[in-house]
Amino acid sequence: MAKMAKIIIDGKTYEVDSSKNLLETILSLKLNLQYFCWHPAMGSVGACRQCAVKKYRDENDKAGKLFMACMEPVVDGMRVSIEDPEAKEFRAGVIEWLMTNHPHDCPVCDEGGECHLQDMTLMSGHNYRRFRYKKRTYRNQYLGPFLHHEMNRCIQCYRCVRFYRDYAGGDDLNVFGVHSSVYFGRHEDGVLENEFAGNLVEVCPTGVFTDNTLFQHYTRKWDLTSAPSVCVHCGVGCNTLAGERYGKLRRILTRYNGQVNGYFLCDRGRFGYEFVNSEKRIRKPMLRLSGENRLSEADEETAITEISAIIKSSRKVMGIGSPRASLEANFTLRSLVSERNFYWGVPEQEFSLLTKEMNILRQGSIRTPSLREIEKCDVVVILGEDLTNTAPMIALAVRQSVRQVPVQSATPYKIPHWQDAAVRELVQDEKGPVFVATPYATKLDSVARTFRGSADEIARLGYAIAGAISSDAPKADNLNEEVCVLSESISKALNKAERPLIIAGQSLKSEAIVNAAANIAYAMRKAGKNVELCYTVPECNSMGMVMMGGKALDQAFHAVEKEAMDTLIIMENDLFRRDEKQAVDRFLKRFKNIIVLDYIENATTERATAIIPVGSFAESDGTFVNNEGRAQRFYQVFVPNKEIKESWRWVRNIMVTSGMKEFSRWKNLLDYTQALIKEMPYFTGIDTITPPPGFRIAGRKIPREPYRYSGRTAMHADKTVHEPKPPEDVDSPMSFTMEGYRGQPPSSLIPFFWSPGWNSAQAINKYQIEVGGPLHGGDPGKRLIEPLPNAKPSYFTDVPKAFAPREGEWMLVPVYHIFGSDELSVHSPGVRELVPKPYIMLSPDDAARLQVTSDSELELGIGGQVERLPVKINLGLRPGLAGYPVTLPGMSVVRFPVSVKISGVKK
Amino acid sequence: MEKPLTQNIRTDGAPLYLKEYEQAGGYQALRKTITMTPKEVMDLVKDSGLRGRGGAGFPTGMKWSFVPMGDNAPRPKYLVANGDEMEPGTFKDRLLIEAKPHQLIEGMIISAYAIQADISYIFIRGEYTEGAEIIQKAIHEAYEAGYLGKNILGSPFSLEMHVHTSVGRYMCGEETALLNALEGKRATPRSKPPFPQSSGLFGKPTIVNNIETLSCISHIINNGAEWFKKLSLTGEGGTKLYGASGKVKRPGLWELPLGTTLREILEEYAGGMRDGLKLRGLLPGGASTDFLTEEHLDVNMDFTSVGKVGSRMGTGTIIVMDDKTCPVGFVHNLQVFFAQESCGWCTPCREGLPWVEKTLYSIEHGTGQMEDLDILSFHTKYLGPGNTFCPLAPGAMEPLQSALKYYREDFIKHINEKSCPWRS
Questions:
Q1: Parent domain of A375
Q2: pTM over 0.95, yes/no
Q3: Chain B closest CA to A433's CA: distance in Å?
Q4: ipTM surpasses cut 0.85
């Protein structure tokens, strides 16, 4: 329990938490006070001097003295005034100083209308300009496809470098120059290297760093139709705000969730959204008319009739679900084809590994932490995951966890932990223990002690750690000295830790790694220690998939070999990304009818005999389950052309038309969700993570548009002068208009952050119970997986053998890219620019042996095919291993584990 | 009159190297120190009343007493000599560095012993290239002679010493910015608390003392606290290097008892104003101190007495302004310096000082407006201690606020006549 203090602000007494600084406290009390350099996730440095308040020694002190609220610890009995005329004059003065050089280009600035500087300027009351000299000007830089740079607007709050360098671990953004010409940028033009650079859009209090993808199709915040959404680009499930205008998705912002992503997003999540607007979008149903070979556009009614007829006349219909589709969509397809004929469109290997991860968490006694909780862990062991590329926000959380141990050293010095600059001076480069075991060098290495080896070697290390912690855990034999020493020191660190965490996943396609991670946790538990276990999952609903359970793609392949089926329905899944081309080809050839529901043209839709245009995340509602087992609801942002509907709605309509009348009672999403729960009770509660569609506040819906939304009566005037009826939303309590309840909605229904006087993302303060804490009403989402305290799982015993390179053969290890490995985001032009070209990764030793350099090309035999790939050398890779970027555009799909021979070298 | 700091200085300008320094009694204080406990050394310095000669006048012994001592104290501990003498008009540390390097080194070893520091740095203004070379050579001699390094003079005490030349920012004179610079970071100040005594260089306990302060230490050890106190006229302890620049007959630097009056310094030592010129005002201790005028000449130059008349003794180096020099131009010149030397960390200093500078420029050049006086007053009011992150801007406001008080009619005349009366 936090120590409480009574303080007096402008004559009123408040009881507050004494571990906070005065600024946080004032904001948590929902009072208004201007600030710039302080950030709730980054603490105080006292640079901008904006949050000045008067502080009085005692009740007899009438004069008082100015203090910066962000640098003042809350002390019992403290007396302060925000409204004191001198404090107000000083704060207005700070704005006036900042304005001496600010260009006042709000009308042409992308930040305008959601600018913290605008808000603070208005709040300060400064309006009349006295400075009559020239402003300083800067040259702007090219920073890559994501961020637009406009340095003249800079107010030198230092937030950008503090986020980029101190928080996110980047080093190619810095502050240059001195006095009144301080410059924030790179040492030269170039793409910002850090994967979290996009957060500068929200971290910057004005328009220095703005969203360059938004700039390509710019819309003011007040003109956006927005909805709460969940990121679809990996399995972490960050909460997002998605905004639309004129049928185009315009941008993604962070939707604060105190338990998940907090204030930040990764760049794939923030900038990957543009696939929604892609020219490859499927917008109309496509049918193969009788006697024709190619598909042609059809209207909705024809499509439903034709497809229903196909299904009715089919003897057997097989359904292929997807981990990128919602629970409801998969469940509806499963309802259509029956459980027996429903398969998940992922390889057996991935499916069983994910199932294993889930079972370890669900049937064991080890808790899995939320993303926010990872930040609080003090020792982290990462087995086999290149987190920056497979689950970027977990990597960002681990970067914060390295501060947990060192920050404690501030306590005896009486330095409050929010005093960021002082804590960093004290801590210097000291980092808490993080161990990264991966096949190749990763970005997190900079904060970690590392181990390099094949998947099996990593698993052996894991087993060795478990063995070192608890003597009854199975041990790996024939360990080399490096593993012995390392496992010893990792086990020591884990034993000393208060909140240790093991992170693993299925990225390397290794069951032994998943097991070894569990064994470490089990051994810790056996030794009576606290421990948590986090598994990454590849897609936004991978965990939902394995929770629903069922069969995988290999079994579908098998089934059609045994039994003839005539119709296949594939939902939101490109099978050619899932398995080797020949295998998928052979499978598809078994069917007469291939009905594909998807939103983007891909290799699978090319093979379809009928295509149904379904809504992407922005045009659908549904529920995803993230790696933590947290069920989260995402909402439709806008209504596209009428043929695009949610997968579940299309499938249900087809079912009803083809005679399964009982499904006609599924009217809105809640009906689907409740039917799902009825059949799969372990999803109980996901229907109440958000208010039902009939929910109203004072009889009103929650508007997706701000009340300043403009142009509604004019935007369709080119077609009709009659204002069209706004679309209705039967699935949620939100309206697609500006009408509705204007106060704060329940936490799961926040379409945008706004509060009177707070137009920027900083309005989040007003939505939280206390600054940086949970949202009013609790952070949205529901954890479906909690450990069983009395479970006594037994150790896994599949200790793999040591890896021995074989002459002339290379064992492939999967390599991941934040920009490139994800299916959807590569359709976004900005992301596309950063996708690497196909390549193969070699160790320096092997490259030397083969006498190849980074310019050389290798010829490889993979899966019966010959591939020519340029070489990239990775300093961490061990000889005998070759890195193979998976699902990168232009790369073939292979089944791991696989070894290749090099058949030729072009230097 | 005793002049411990400058006695034995060679008249040919060459430095007093080890042999001569030892002949003059050098390093006897260190030999005595290692027979004392650190606490005894610290108490002696406390009793002597020595106050920091960098400008703020903080009692040196008290500063040391905040350093964590004992076996559990964080290590390494650091001692840093602040030789970043960039205050305009100030040139006292330079003499001590160039003429008596071993006096500084010995003082540092003793001070390091008192706080049980492990590593020491001498941070020297970048332009003092000659001084840096001299100090470097002297350090080398001290190592050779066993005064530095492991087990100094056979005692358990060890100390490393390094020279670091600044790349040149006024900001580095502020002790926490100096520490950042020494760590290779931007020379921006740190927030206090925590004070460097507990979390300083590389996050470890650190004492930063001025060159002149450290140069006093060996004499206190040799002659005792009472002797040191009696050196001064007013009880603050010690002698002081006073300087005078500006249009006086004999600009220079003199070691005098602390508390010598301004009149004595200016008239006896600096020889009074040049013929035909009258004293208009003076900055008693460098550019960031308030103006004093004719009426204040009988004030004793010590920390307390100068404070009482509304200025600061600062570094004790006086800048004299005569009656043929325009006070607006004079202050403008200072503000050009301060605006340029702002580190750019906090808003009021970074944006306020250039505004002040531009305003003074326009007044000086005939485009000033009466409202400009309000703008200047706004800055002198709000660029105060606590409102800005560090004392740079408040220091910059001291000559301005006092100029607005004493020479207001000059400012008004500039504005009314739309030109500088001294230029026409």
A1: 352-538
A2: yes
A3: 20
A4: yes
